[in-house]
Structures are given as C-alpha cells and as structure tokens.
Design brief:
A: about 200 residues, alpha+beta, Alpha-Beta Plaits, two-stranded antiparallel sheet, 6 helices, B: about 325 residues, globular
Chain lengths: ~200, ~325
C-alpha cells in the first residue's frame, strides 16, 4: 500500500516536470551558452597592435609544451612591414590538438602574447588532420573569441593575487604615486650566484 | 465506391490497407512522441536535430536500421530466428481487424471480436519465445522464458477483467459493447466499482502483455542485456521494437473501446473520440513507463496471482450480480 502511494507521488513529480523549464543547455550550433572567462579549448595565433604577426619564433612554447605538440620554425630577424623595425618572425608554426592536454603553458610562457586559447566549445573532427592546426588555421582562428587568461593578462592576474606591498616609511615625504612602491614591491633579489663563487 | 462496400473481400483489403498503414505510421511516430514525452519528464528537450523539433527522427532511425548488416548468430536456429520478428508484427496487426473505429466502421465485424483480439494477442508470446529460443543466447533464452511465464500468468487477470465489459455489455462483439456504453455510461464509470477496478487491472495486465515497464522483465536491460532482442540487429530488431509499440497502441485502443465508451462522447460520436481516448491511455502508459521502476520477476508473479487474479475475480462476481439484480 505504501508502495502504491509512493508510485503515485513519483507519477505526480514526473507529471509536474512536463510543465517545467528544460535544464538542458542548447547545443553549440543552436546558440549554446556563454562560456566562462577562462574556458579554453583550441588555439589561435594573433597579430599585435602594430599589425605584425605577434609570434617572433622564439620556440619557448615548443620547449615548454609537455605533450611536445608544437613545432616552430624560426624565420630569422626581418624588418617589420608595418613599422620598419627589425623583429623576429616564424616561418612555420604547427600545433597538434589531438594530443593537447590544455595546460595553457604555451600561452603563459609566450613573451609576445602571440598564442591564445579559444573560448568556444571544441568542434570535433572526422579525421586526425582536422584537429592538426597549421599556421593558416591558427591565424584564421584569430577571429574567434579568446580565453581571458592569456599572456600578459595572466601575469596581471597573478600580480593582483599577490599580497599588497607594505606602505612606504612615513619619515620621508611621499614620493610621486607613479614611482611609489614599485621598488619596494619587487622582492629582494635572492643571493643568487653565491654557489658559483669559489 | 458501392462496388467496394458490397464486396467483403475488397472492403477487407481496402480497410486493412488503410488501418495497417495508419497504425504503422502512428507506431513509428509514437517513438518520437515517447522520446519527447520522456524528455519533458526529465527536464530535457528530447530529439531536436532531425527535422523541426526532431519530427523526422523516426525516418532517420529507420534509415539507420535498414542500412545495418543483417547478422544471424552462427548456431542460431536460422528459420525461427528470421521468422519471429515478422510473425510478431503480423499477430499484433491482426488484432486490429475487428476494431469498431466509429459507428459502422468495422473492417471485420465478428460476433466474437473481443475473443478474437484476446486470443490473437496471447499468441504474441509464441514469436517472443521463438526469438528467445532461436537466438541461441542465454540472455535471450531467459528473456523468452520470462515472457512465456509472464504471458501465461497475466492472461488470467487480463481475460477476467475483460469479462466485466462482456457481462455488462452482454455481447462479445466490440460494436455491441461500445453501443451498451452510449450516452456516457462508460463501464469505467458506470456501474461504480467493478468497471473502474477492472479498467485499471486491464490496463496493467496489458502493460505486462506488451512487455512495457514496470513489467518489462523479458527485456530487463540491467539483468538480461536486452532480453529477447539481444542477438537482433537492423530491421529485425526494428520490427520487434515496432511490434512492441503497436501492441501498446492496440492495448490502449482496446482499453478505450471496452471501458471508456469507444466512439461515444459529448457532441458528435465518431472516430475522433476513440482516437482521443486511446491517445490519452497511450500517453498514460508512457507516463508510467518513464516514472516507475521494473518489478523483480518473483514480485511480479506474486503481484499477478495474489492481487490481480483475486481482485479481478471479485470484479467479475460484482459485475454479474449487478447485471442480474439491477
């Protein structure tokens, strides 16, 4: 008898569910939902503010990548077509997303913020080649919204999280705000090289 | 037109063609309906991708099933294995022959229409058992044996609860039973008592006959992989699947005819009332199926013999007394 009552209460709940809103998020091609700021999937290479390709071919991302999926072919120094100043270039840049573990280390290590991760759901492919990103594909991805924690932005975030520097000593007159605290904020350099001295 | 109406063979052929095709299409899209309905109950949208609101999903499923390789297990009994799915389909469809869809719309107006339907639908156990046996698979065999045990047990309360409208209506012809419920005196409502209880028992026993949750122990995914359909692929699986939905649809039609007054309703009588009532029963079956859990095999047998059979016997006795003295 109790079982029968429970059955009816279960039927009531499922019956009410018929008229409730759906919990499911729409599929990506039906709109989807707004992804969190640090949602990160695939990659893009970007241009800097001068309009040059930001990558200088320093191979740091290639060296730091735990999965060793990035290959950079440096193109040597050449004058920039936009500013005329000489700067490093990359002849080729490939990234195999098949083996990517999405650790974002390449983005963090990049000195020029040239590589960013994308803030859109990953699109699966029908072959391995579709997930192998050539330089053209990476620059084509520049138009896609990027993840927030990229390069210098990430460094800024990490600086923000650090404890505030101590206030300057009161005895001296307060120096101009632009320079105040900056020397104090940098931690004292450790006594590096001590071991090297004989 | 008059040529068709006067010749019983032609009439049967035309009516059969129309009814069978309509029911096959209904069964295919009832799968879509069930998936949408189940989705709504679980706060998700169900199929949305194929066609508008996923309406072409049955077509996509059909194309997928037809494309599949037709595999027969090495040591299976090939003839029985291949015969079981179409035979089940034929037996389910045969029951539709005697339904009174509307006043005067009966493909085959048998005197013993109800007996015909009940005997045909109890024959469906045979293809199920054939499928279980011929697969040469322990899960399929267990499923087939459970189906046979279930059908033998639940045949008793099904027939006893169907006896109530027979006694109250005084006929085995479905048209007469519907006519006896005219003007809202539906057997599920009037006389109060035996009819409504028998209605509930009849629908529950029909669920068991059609192997639907909570009585789907022949299939029992969590225990028997897929029960009798374990070894079936492609369109043969599709036929078994479709036959199950058709069986459910026939059960709802029969429940609406026997207990809810068939074509009778407020306003003009007609096929729309029968379709509306049976659709409500159909949706109710899905509601139960997506809410409740499966019975264990022994609980299920106990429920049948200790509850359903005595209660349905009591219903028959009360209905008989009412018929004689009231």
């Amino acid at each position: 008898m109790i079982g029968l009552l429970q059955a009816f209460s279960a039927l009531r709940i499922t019956g009410l569910n018929l008229f409730r809103a759906k919990n499911t998020e729409p599929l990506p091609w039906d709109g989807g939902r707004v992804r969190p700021e640090r949602y990160r999937t695939s990659f893009a290479l970007v241009h800097n503010s001068d309009g040059d390709e930001a990558c200088i071919g320093c191979k740091m991302c290639e060296k730091i990548c735990p999965s060793q999926i990035i290959t950079v072919v440096p193109g040597g120094r050449a004058p920039s077509p936009n500013t005329g100043k000489p700067r490093g270039t990359a002849k080729d840049f490939t990234l195999d997303v098949n083996a990517c573990i999405h650790c974002e280390l390449c983005v963090q290590v990049c000195p020029e913020d040239a590589i960013v991760m994308l803030r859109v759901p990953e699109v699966p492919g029908f072959s391995r080649e579709e997930l192998f990103l050539s330089m053209e594909k990476l620059y084509a991805n520049e138009k896609v919204p990027a993840s927030w924690g990229t390069g210098a932005l990430l460094i800024g975030m990490q600086a923000e999280g650090q404890p505030k520097p101590p206030p300057p000593p009161a005895k001296a007159a307060p120096p101009p705000a632009t320079t105040a605290g900056v020397p104090e904020a940098t931690p004292p350099a450790p006594a590096a090289g001590g071991g090297e001295t004989p | 037109m008059s040529v068709i109406l006067e010749n019983p063979w032609l009439l049967g052929a035309v009516a059969g063609f129309v009814v069978i095709n309509a029911m096959m299409v209904t069964a295919a899209w009832s799968i879509w309906f069930e998936r949408k309905f189940a989705g709504a109950m679980q706060n998700r949208p169900g199929p949305t991708q194929v066609g508008w609101a996923g309406l072409l999903q049955p077509v996509a499923d059909l194309l997928k099933l037809i494309q599949k390789e037709d595999i027969v297990p090495t040591n299976a009994d090939r003839a029985l294995f291949n015969l079981a799915p179409p035979l089940g389909m034929i037996l389910v469809l045969a029951g539709l022959a005697v339904f009174p869809w509307a006043p005067g719309w009966v493909p085959a107006d048998l005197d013993i229409g109800l007996l015909f339907i009940l005997s045909i639908s109890s024959l469906i156990t045979i293809p199920v058992w054939m499928a279980g046996w011929a697969s040469n698979n322990k899960y399929a065999l267990l499923g087939g044996m459970r189906a046979a045990a279930q059908a033998v047990s639940f045949e008793v309360p099904l027939l006893l609860s169907a006896l109530v409208p027979i006694i109250l209506g005084g006929s085995l012809r479905l048209g007469d039973i519907v006519a006896a419920q005219a003007d809202g005196r539906w057997f599920a409502l009037w006389p109060p008592g035996p009819g409504s209880v028998a209605f509930v028992l009849f629908m529950l026993a029909s669920l068991a006959e059609a192997n639907r949750i909570p009585f789907d122990i022949p299939e029992a995914e969590s225990e028997l992989v897929a029960g009798i359909t374990t070894e079936y692929v492609g369109m043969k699986f599709g036929l078994i699947y479709l036959a199950e939905y058709l069986h459910t649809a026939v059960s709802s039609l029969l429940g609406a005819t026997l207990f809810l007054g068939g074509w009778d309703g407020p306003g003009p009588d007609g096929i729309h009332w029968l379709l509306l009532k049976s659709f409500a029963l159909f949706a109710g079956i899905f509601w139960v199926r997506w809410t409740l859990l499966r019975y264990r095999a022994d609980q299920f047998m106990a429920l049948c013999w200790r509850v359903f059979v005595p209660v349905s016997l009591a219903c028959v006795a009360v209905a008989a007394v009412w018929r004689v003295y009231a």
